[in-house]
Design a protein that fits this description.
The complex is a heterodimer of chains A (about 700) and B (about 150).
Chain A (H helix, E strand, L loop, with lengths): L6 H24 L4 H21 L2 H18 L7 H24 L8 H17 L2 H21 L11 H12 L3 E9 L6 H13 L2 E7 L2 H5 L6 E8 L3 H9 L4 E8 L3 H4 L5 H13 L1 H21 L11 H27 L6 H25 E3 L1 H4 L2 H12 L3 E6 L4 E3 H22 L3 H6 L6 E10 L2 E8 L6 H11 L4 H6 L2 H7 L21 H10 L3 E7 L3 E9 L4 E9 L2 E6 L3 E8 L4 E3 L2 E6 L2 E7 H4 L11 E9 L2 E7 L1 E9 L14 E6 L5 E5 L1 H4 L1
Parallel strand pairs in A: 6-8, 13-22, 17-19
Antiparallel strand pairs in A: 1-3, 1-4, 2-3, 5-7, 8-9, 9-11, 10-11, 12-13, 12-20, 14-18, 15-16, 16-17, 18-19, 21-22
Helix pairs in contact in A: 1-2, 1-4, 2-3, 3-4, 3-5, 4-5, 6-13, 8-10, 10-13, 14-15, 17-18, 18-23, 20-22
Chain B lengths: L1 H10 L2 E9 L2 E6 L3 E6 L13 E7 L2 E7 H4 L12 E5 L7 E5 L1 E9 L3 E3 L12 E7 L2 E6 L1 H5 L2
Parallel strand pairs in B: 2-11, 5-7
Antiparallel strand pairs in B: 1-2, 1-8, 3-6, 4-5, 6-7, 9-10, 10-11
Classes of the chains: A alpha+beta (about 700), B mainly beta (about 150).
Chain lengths: ~700, ~150
């Protein structure tokens, strides 16, 4: 077996641990005495070290080893956490991320030793320990030693169940004669673990680095075939003390606990071996591992504690996204097939057969459920993207020398996986933008009577068929006049034109390429790439970006994204003789309006609906269709919404609600005004176009 | 005679073309790019697109755009007849695209000496979609340059 096949698991777990380290360090910065956090960090560093070691990434192992050392001392109360330490740890974290990146690209860790960080860590360690009272340490170790041995006593000895063959016994004897220690070891894998066999393999590999495995229970073959529950046990022959063995086992992640002790050779050699030789050597060796055991034991004790409190992790299976796409396409086909049966039944007098209708109803509920579950499989929480932001804001705060905090809500909001993957950059831009352009310097904030610390908010929530992610700050807001002046200076508009522009039009200019209002170009933003990239990215995902701002009070960038990409509920309408679909999610109401209710404002047609003045859009005009018999007395108006803006679309006829499968028009056809977002195939095989109401408003 | 034919066929590189009619002219389309030939069906108009696109059709569950070569080549428009066909073209890894033609006549096999390529001798705008002339049974077939037809 080759370690490379575990590279992917390694990388995934590494990023998980790095993320957890980052989260915990953020907490630790706020609460330097939080022992749970310290333990958590220790554990993550420890697991990372073990994993890196197993995979043969020595540089990464060294760095994590030093991080772990520092935390061993912090945990034992020998040194205090200070901001200096946190800074260095964050640097170390960046270095780890770098390793991960390099490994992901080249499967090699690169050549950067990160010497300065390691030195810094060791310096802090020395400094910290210099101050620590020695007595305290001794006491502490003793305590832990005690608790560790207490823990060990309560555990049973699963390796005693191993049935030894003749060869096993002779192998054990050989090992004993060579002066090696024989340990019985029982390993329990976390019940949430998906790849048990892989974990077991990593455990074996870790042990084989320091010794030899004589026999396992179940057999090696059964373990490889995953024919075991969550426990396996073995006899190990090694020259190393027991705590090394345990540390090796625990270095593999998802191992819940490892128990074991030195085995009395006598128990299986009584027949032939004289008793004395064994009893003499055994106590001597047995003494040795005990004092060293506590650190590993303690780590393991603490490891089991919090995991009991946490909810059991959902069982997951990694599935290639392409396979899901295939499944999705099949569901689409099924829905089209269902739609054609529905239309066939209404067309050919079969409708009077009630059982036929029942079957269609059944088929409909099956396809709807199937669709929903396939969609859900593709949904992931945006957490994986936004959980990097607290650290980013912290870095920005240092870099820009402004005090700021990030408040996030709705991290569990779910979006299609393909959308989530693309979301990271645009959101990062928006947060940087808020931190750099939005928030004022501390002096200005004090002058304005705002708290010294700036706040950035990231709120995500679902709104109908859309997900809204809002990035807000309580900073300066957008200075519309400054943008106007900038636009003139850049030659984008003439001074006369600039006068004519509304506030909204001016703000929209920020989304044009190469437009930055920052007076000083900083490292963070202000290079003229940013908002235009955000806009084009979000639009390519089928969403849009809008801004609300108040000078002196802050601004809010709101990103709207479609929840699903492939199948939607839509309202089918008729315009002229053509059928169009409008996504149900963007429809507010459907109204019947009499011709006399249409008023004119600035030569545009509007209607008043529940005290709102709503512009109406005649789809005939937009879609280049002859209006035919001019103006009926009653008009059917589909009121669509985008955020809090409304517009009424005038249609000729309503067909009804239908589940439609969105198909792309392909790259050949170029819809200039982009009002057509795609096409769908109706039950009778006809193609209907999908209107993008967001573009019309 | 038969032997002679055989010999020349072995030596010559052969290409099969589908011969179509647009107006009075015959055009050849390399058969390896032809995915399908379908009868005229309901084409859904797409507003606000390039004028030579007729719209989109449903080809076994796929939405396929359809262009009108007459419009693209600047020829006068004509009513569809019972002979009108849509040829579905698929270029390498690109999505399929349909081309409306007045009629599909036959499949011919041309050897390389029966084809005269017109590299660089194009004078008139209407023939920019042609990259060669094939001689077959005493008639001339203009060979369509599909890349030029499909690109803007």
């Amino acid at each position: 077996m080759d370690v490379n096949q575990y590279l992917e698991i390694f990388l995934d777990e590494t990023s998980e641990h790095i993320q957890s380290l980052s989260d915990q360090l953020m907490i630790l910065e706020q609460e330097p005495d939080n022992t749970d956090t310290i333990n958590e960090i220790f554990r993550s560093a420890h697991s990372l070290k073990g994993m890196a070691g197993t995979m043969g990434y020595k540089r990464m192992q060294n760095l994590t080893h030093d991080m772990e050392n520092v935390f061993t001392e912090v945990r034992n109360g020998n040194m205090k956490v200070n901001s200096n330490l946190i800074d260095v740890l964050f640097k170390a974290l960046d270095a780890l991320e770098e390793y991960e990146k390099v490994i992901r690209e080249t499967s090699d860790e690169g050549t950067n030793d990160n010497e300065p960080i390691i030195k810094e860590l060791n310096r802090i360690l020395d400094e910290g320990l210099g101050k620590a009272p020695a007595a305290d340490e001794a006491e502490k170790t003793e305590d832990e030693g005690k608790s560790a041995s207490d823990g060990a006593d309560s555990k049973d000895k699963p390796w005693q169940d191993i049935k030894l063959s003749e060869e096993n016994i002779s192998a054990i004897k050989d090992a004993d004669e060579k002066g090696l220690n024989i340990y019985g070891v029982g390993v329990h894998i976390q019940e949430s673990c998906v790849l048990k066999a892989a974990r077991a393999f990593l455990v074996f590999k870790a042990i084989e680095d320091i010794g030899e495995i004589i026999v396992t229970n179940p057999s090696a073959q059964d373990i490889e075939d995953e024919k075991f529950d969550f426990d396996f046990s073995m006899y190990v022959a090694t020259a190393e003390p027991y705590d090394k063995v345990e540390a090796a086992v625990l270095s593999v992640s998802e191992i819940e606990k490892c128990i074991g002790e030195k085995v009395d050779i006598q128990s299986f050699t009584t027949k032939e071996e004289p008793k004395e030789t064994v009893t003499e050597t055994a106590p001597a060796v047995k003494e040795e591992p005990k004092p060293k055991a506590p650190s590993a034991q303690a780590a393991q004790n603490k490891q089991t504690k919090p995991s009991a409190g946490k909810p059991v992790v959902n069982r997951t299976v990694r599935v290639d996204i392409e396979k899901l796409d295939v499944l999705m396409n099949l569901v689409s086909e099924l829905i089209i097939a269902k739609n054609s049966i529905v239309s066939a039944s209404s067309g050919e007098g079969m409708a009077n057969s009630s059982s036929f209708n029942d079957h269609i109803g059944y088929l409909e509920s099956v396809t709807t459920n199937l669709h929903e579950s396939v969609m859900k499989v593709r949904m992931v929480p945006i957490e994986s993207v936004v959980n990097r932001f607290p650290k980013m804001v912290r870095d920005l705060s240092k870099k820009l020398n402004k005090k700021m905090n990030l408040f996030m809500s709705g991290e569990d909001t779910e979006l299609d996986r393909t959308v989530v993957d693309e979301l990271s950059d645009p959101l990062m831009h928006l947060i940087r933008n808020s931190a750099d352009h939005g928030l004022e310097s501390a002096e200005v904030r004090a002058e304005r009577g705002k708290p010294e610390e700036g706040s950035i908010f990231l709120d995500a929530y679902q709104d109908g068929n859309n997900v809204i992610i809002e990035v807000r700050d309580d900073g300066n807001g957008i200075d519309v006049e400054a943008v106007r002046a900038k636009a003139i200076e850049r030659g984008a508009v003439t001074p006369e034109q600039a006068e004519q522009l509304t506030e909204k039009e001016v703000i929209d200019m920020l989304f044009q390429p190469s437009f930055s209002t920052a007076k000083v170009v900083t490292d963070v933003s202000g290079r003229g790439v940013g908002l235009d990239v955000v806009k084009s990215k979000i639009e390519s995902l089928g969403g849009d970006v809008s801004v609300k701002t108040k000078l002196g009070e802050g601004s809010a960038f709101s990103v709207r994204l479609p929840l699903t990409l492939a199948i939607i509920q839509a309202l089918m309408v008729v315009v002229g003789e053509e059928k169009y679909a409008i996504a149900l999610g963007s429809i507010d109401t459907i109204e019947s309006i009499s011709k006399s209710d249409v008023k004119y404002v600035e030569a545009k047609e509007v209607i008043t609906l529940r005290e709102n003045v709503i512009p109406i859009i005649r789809l005939h005009g937009v879609l280049n269709i002859d209006e035919g018999s001019e103006d009926k007395d009653e008009m059917i108006v589909v009121v669509v919404k985008k955020g809090d803006k409304l517009a009424g679309l005038v249609v000729d006829e309503l067909i009804g609600q239908q589940e439609i499968v969105i198909k792309s028009l392909g790259k050949y056809i170029n819809c200039a005004s982009r009002i057509i977002s795609g096409a769908t195939i109706l039950g009778d095989g006809e193609v209907a176009l999908i209107l993008d109401a967001n573009v019309l408003i | 005679m038969d032997e002679l034919m055989l010999n020349s066929e072995v030596e010559m590189e052969k290409t099969q073309f589908i011969v179509i009619r647009i107006g009075d002219e015959q055009y050849g389309i390399d058969i390896k790019y032809v995915d399908n030939i379908v009868r005229m069906q309901k084409i859904t108009r797409v507003p606000d697109v390039q004028s030579y696109f007729e719209g989109v059709i449903n080809l076994r569950g796929e939405v396929v755009p359809v262009m009108n070569l007459r419009k693209k080549a600047g020829l006068p428009d004509e009513e569809y007849t019972k002979d009108t066909r849509i040829i579905i073209i698929k270029l390498e890894n690109n999505a399929p695209i349909g081309i409306v033609v007045d009629a599909v006549k036959e499949v011919v096999t041309l050897t390389s000496d029966e084809i005269e390529y017109t590299k660089g001798t194009v004078r008139n705008e209407q023939v920019t979609f042609i990259n060669g002339i094939g001689k077959c049974n005493n008639s001339l077939i203009s060979l369509l340059d599909l890349n030029a037809v499909i690109s803007e």
